[in-house]
Amino acid sequence: MGALSLTFDNLGEAAELEGGAEVAEPGRHFTALQRVPEILTMLAERQLSATFFVEGLNTELYPDLLGEIDARGHEVAYHAWRHEQWGELSAEEQVENLARGLAGFESLGLELAGMRPPGGLLGPGGIDVLRAAGLNYFSPAGAGASAENGIALLPFQWRHVDAACTLPGLGAAREQMTGSADPVDPATFVASLGAEIDELARTDNYMAIVLHPVMLDWLGRDRLAALLDRIAAASARDELWVGRCSELAARVLADPAYFGNGTVLDTTSWT
Known about the structure:
single chain; five-stranded parallel sheet; about 15% strand
């Protein structure tokens, strides 16, 4: 049986602030006030659990929403403090970033198990800084879930990321979807994911779907609903194990060869 993690990256204005944007009223971003609550309702209607990779800054801006995500049975995981490009941080900067972020979540009573690096790259600190911070899994760009020195690796592939449909630097991912580097429309993206979900159900492999609340208007609620329906149906038929990243990480740490023969990291980033 294949395994799938349904994940959502970014929350609020953290990434915009990191990119240099001016935000007139921090703490009022539409993704936090509108999109994430909509997504939580859609997940609840289908009894699906997801992992939300969010920036540490959100512990200051949206503490109640983070508590609600957790209370609804989803996982909250780390996505750097303010969406810093993880691969560009020194090992020391990664240590400081993790310490600040995890302390913020701990102040809300949230104990985090893992992180996904903005940009998808591991960075010079390697997995040592993650282990030292007390995390037990990492979700970089790559393929093949495995374990390395006590850290589970749960990679995502760029062709399974909604943003890869439009970002200029990810033409190779679009070629994997359609055979062309041209931008991919939402319907084609969902159809591509659907075909891969069907294939996953016939294997013992691992797959992470990466969606961004900020792109919900691009994707369309009907298409997201159809995708969630497909995932829920496969789970109900016991064709897929749909789990939070922390659950799948626990399986990998208990049996590193459960999903195959190792991880191959991808050095491609969206930047």
